[in-house]
């Protein structure tokens, strides 16, 4: 009897140990799986931010070959292709994302963005029209404004630009786009105000500075605006202002501004030198 009891206790202990071992193994296995998911998610984020977008696109392309139905990998590929400037391939990639059962309105907006980058304005408009009006985001309205601009629907464009500005804390780029829209319409004073406002949000946005100078030059204002600028930027802005003056028929003022840009630039300003020579040759002739 005592012997049977010992055997029973031994077997019970073995079963308990076996169960504990299975439980611990299962936990370890699940833990490793969880860690792998976290590591892969982190790797995806790292690859999206990689300095070489082509390397990022290759990574997501390889990952999709192994698991083609994962929408996060599809998005990663599409975003990487946009960064790489491969817009045609990006359009195809975003279309695949939008077809996925788990796609969202944000994906549709990103497809519209890719279509605009590829020059397909009608396709972008069609895609944006399918986005529910409840999807109110900065990017959606910025793209809506750009599409309206392309159709010269100025009232709609202004409304969308205004809405987009109100939906972001960093409106410099959309203000610059809005200002350029006003510039193309010949509304130079309004354009000047928008470019100046864009620079207050991003003092390093040279495109807005250059556009600001263009809008001032179109109004016959041939002094540089009071904005933060490097010496190289100052030379480039003087050159832009000089060309604007020449275009407006103020050739003498334009030549003076171009000469000043050459003197201001810390290196040899070849583009300005060639323009000045061409102007002087025309005057001589």
TrEMBL record:
Keywords (A to Z) from UniProt: Signal, TPR repeat
UniProt signal peptide: 1-18
Domain of life according to the entry: Bacteria
UniProt TPR repeat ranges: 172-205
Protein name: Flp pilus assembly protein TadD
Species assigned in the record: Pacificibacter maritimus
Upper classification of the organism: Bacteria, Pseudomonadati, Pseudomonadota, Alphaproteobacteria, Rhodobacterales
């Amino acid at each position: 009897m005592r012997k049977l009891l010992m055997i029973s206790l031994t077997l019970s202990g073995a079963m308990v140990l076996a169960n504990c071992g299975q439980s611990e193994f299962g936990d370890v296995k699940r833990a490793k799986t969880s860690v792998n998911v976290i590591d892969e998610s982190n790797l995806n984020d790292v690859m999206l931010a990689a300095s070489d977008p082509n390397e990022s696109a290759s990574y997501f392309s390889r990952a999709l070959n192994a698991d083609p139905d994962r929408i996060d990998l599809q998005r990663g590929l599409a975003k990487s292709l946009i960064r790489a400037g491969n817009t045609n391939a990006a359009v195809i990639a975003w279309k695949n994302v939008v077809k996925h059962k788990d796609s969202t309105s944000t994906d549709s907006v990103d497809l519209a963005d890719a279509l605009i980058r590829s020059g397909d304005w009608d396709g972008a408009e069609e895609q944006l029209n399918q986005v529910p009006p409840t999807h109110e985001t900065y990017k959606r309205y910025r793209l809506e404004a750009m599409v309206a601009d392309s159709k010269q629907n100025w009232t709609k464009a202004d409304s969308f630009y205004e809405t987009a500005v109100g939906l972001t804390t960093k409106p410099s780029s959309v203000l610059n786009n809005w200002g350029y829209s006003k510039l193309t319409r010949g509304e130079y004073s309004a354009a000047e105000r928008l470019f100046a406002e864009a620079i207050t949000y991003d003092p390093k946005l040279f495109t807005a500075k250059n556009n600001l100078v263009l809008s001032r030059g179109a109004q016959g204002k041939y002094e540089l605006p009071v904005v933060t600028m490097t010496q190289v930027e100052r030379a480039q802005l003087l050159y832009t202002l000089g060309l604007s003056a020449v275009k407006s028929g103020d050739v003498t003022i334009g030549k003076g501004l171009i000469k000043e840009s050459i003197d201001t630039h810390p290196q040899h300003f070849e583009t300005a030198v060639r323009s000045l020579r061409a102007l002087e040759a025309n005057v001589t002739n």
